[in-house]
Design brief:
The strands form three sheets. Strands 6-5-4-7-8 form a five-stranded mixed beta sheet, with helices on both faces. 39% of the residues lie in helices and 23% in strands. It folds into two domains: 180 residues, 2-Layer Sandwich (Nucleotidyltransferase, domain 5), CATH 3.30.420.40; 167 residues, ATPase, nucleotide binding domain (Nucleotidyltransferase, domain 5, 2-Layer Sandwich). The radius of gyration is 21 Å and the shape is globular. It is of the alpha/beta class. Helix 6 packs across helix 8. The relative contact order is 0.17. The two termini are 26 Å apart. The chain contains ten helices and 13 strands. The structure holds 5'-O-[(R)-(carboxyoxy)(hydroxy)phosphoryl]adenosine and zinc ion. 5'-O-[(R)-(carboxyoxy)(hydroxy)phosphoryl]adenosine binds next to helix 5 and helix 6.
Length: 366
């Protein structure tokens, strides 16, 4: 809705809020929220404005730092967040045409994730909010992934199903409304992203393995190898991906190590993952009667998975929703948005902030 002009400040529950007058002459509250993401190997910063949407976002990826180790080294990750976070906040505020004194709240990832990395974002976010006398809120990283598609033009209506596929988690969730989540299924061992990364390593591909294995699979022959679709032969919605990695290892060891063979293995691996998700999502749709599916988290950037799930949702006369590719992987925008929803509903962290490396999504409420 268009706005005629800026209003003043008022205090609600001890918080400063700004007012604008909308075109119908109604007083409207609006908010600008800074989002900070440091749960793993990406420093992500963004500013979300409740009226104009996303004002700006920046990301610093530590991939080059961790590449030579073939995975994230937690201590290096924390130290690099410390180096990057303040310059990145300043840059993002500038690029968003805003400043510290225009912010109404600060949201930071409080968990789940790497303890040291989380502590950087929580400490900086909470201290900044304290110094600016504005509220702060600790955001659940997987809830933020789940809500990332809400930053797009076409969004689902509640309730819907969400398939969250990241480097650390694989969750199939019944989303009733924001903050009301029921986990229908999850991985009993490796997360989907972890399976991509480990299998990529076996194939000699660089970290992170997801995008590399996906590109290699494009050149592979889907008829040459057939990998199992784990846990699809029994009822239920849980996943297991560690066996696929072992299957890939056995195939690598028993075949010639040429480029085509590696592409064929990548293809069999990707086909197995995509097929497994299609089977489980179809089952979840049947079980719940829901026909909207949100797919989010790093692996939702995967081309083959996106195509497979779009086809499935068309078949059931439903619709699949994804974040834009840059918001599939970790970013500050989803944190700013999820934080905005929580601040709007009156939640705020006390000064005694906490980082929660383990934090079940079902423990949330709003
Ligand atoms: O959500 P995310 O950025 O971080 C976590 O919260 O873990 O997810 C990272 C994971 C990595 O395992 C990475 O290999 C995977 O997402 N990934 C992909 C693709 N892009 C990132 N996996 C498959 N295909 C992709 N295109
Ligand atoms: Zn993530």
């Amino acid at each position: 809705m268009g706005l005629l002009g800026k209003g003043g400040h008022f205090s609600e529950n001890g918080r400063n809020c700004k007012l604008r007058i909308d075109i119908l002459g109604k007083l409207q509250r609006f908010m600008q929220v800074l989002g900070i993401e440091t749960s793993c190997d990406e420093t992500g910063i963004a500013v979300y404005d409740s009226e104009s949407g996303l004002l700006g976002h920046s990301l610093f990826s530590q991939i080059d730092l961790h590449k030579e180790y073939g995975g994230v080294v937690p201590e290096l990750a924390s130290r690099d967040h410390v180096r990057r976070i303040l310059p990145l906040i300043k840059k993002t505020l500038d690029e968003s045409n805003t400043s510290f004194n225009k912010l109404d709240a600060i949201a930071y990832t409080a968990g789940p994730g790497l303890m040291g990395a989380l502590l950087v974002g929580t400490a900086v976010g909470r201290s900044l909010a304290f110094s600016l006398s504005i509220p702060a809120v600790g955001v659940h990283h997987m809830e933020a992934h789940l809500l990332a598609p809400m930053l797009e033009d076409t969004v689902p209506d509640y309730p819907f199903l969400a398939l969250l596929v990241s480097g650390g988690h694989t969750l199939l969730v019944h989303v009733n409304v924001v903050g009301d989540y029921k986990v229908l299924g999850e991985s009993v061992d490796d997360a989907a992203g972890e399976a991509f990364d480990k299998t990529a390593k076996l194939l000699g591909l660089p970290y992170p393995g997801g995008p590399a294995i996906s590109a290699l699979a494009e050149k592979g022959d889907s008829e040459r190898f057939h990998f199992p679709r784990p846990m699809t032969d029994r009822p239920g919605l849980d996943f297991s991906f560690s066996g696929l990695k072992t299957h890939a290892l056995n195939t690598v060891n028993s075949e010639a190590n040429d480029e085509q063979t590696r592409a064929d293995i990548a293809r069999a691996f990707v086909d197995a993952i995509v097929d497994t998700f299609i089977i489980k999502c179809r089952r979840a749709i049947k079980q719940t009667g829901l026909n909207q599916l949100v797919v989010a988290g790093g692996v939702s950037a995967n081309k083959q998975l996106r195509e497979g799930l779009i086809t499935l949702m068309n078949e059931v006369n439903g619709k699949a929703f994804f974040p834009r590719p840059e918001f599939c992987t970790d970013n500050g925008a989803m944190i700013a948005y999820a934080g905005y929803l929580r601040i709007k509903s009156g939640q705020a962290e006390s000064l005694n902030f906490q980082a929660r490396p383990r934090w079940p999504i079902e423990a949330l409420n709003l």
